């Protein structure tokens, strides 16, 4: 597994890097057979240390966690506990579905836009056209998953919505968390 351990305006010593590799490696190997890479970023926010970790698995799952603590090792340990919980739930769900993915998740390119809200535009000025103002445009990846895998990916990422390509019907679908706490699925 490839590790990328960095610090934002703080020095990451050799002892911390070794600790990260051994602890994170043992957690990931316990639940995932083929991890591809892990990125761990340490930063400081006021008097607290912040640790953000992202682990990519060969099945297409991306597990992320973030933790705060007054000491840098405690922040990493909190982050590792969250990753451990996510991977344990992921493995349990895989066992429940009795499905083994033979090949990695296929990703398709797409564009993602951030539009300006009405408060961003001056109220006294009339816009030249009725088209919304695009503030940012970026590339994003759309995974090809089953509905169950998409729900699992959305829950593990903590996202309110996930756009994916349905493997069974070969169309773009959306899963989202409803206001009542249930999961909604849009299949056009």
From TrEMBL:
Cellular location(s): Cytoplasm
One GO molecular-function entry: ribosomal small subunit binding
Gene Ontology annotations of biological process type: negative regulation of translational elongation
Positions of transmembrane segments: none
Keywords: Cytoplasm, Translation regulation
UniProt entry tagged with the keyword NAD: no
Sigma 54 modulation/S30EA ribosomal protein C-terminal domain sequence ranges: 131-184
One Gene Ontology CC term in the entry: cytosolic small ribosomal subunit
PANTHER family membership: 30S RIBOSOMAL PROTEIN (PTHR33231)
Record text on subunit structure and interactions: Associates exclusively with 100S ribosomes, which are dimers of 70S ribosomes. Interacts with 100S ribosomes.
This protein's name: Ribosome hibernation promoting factor
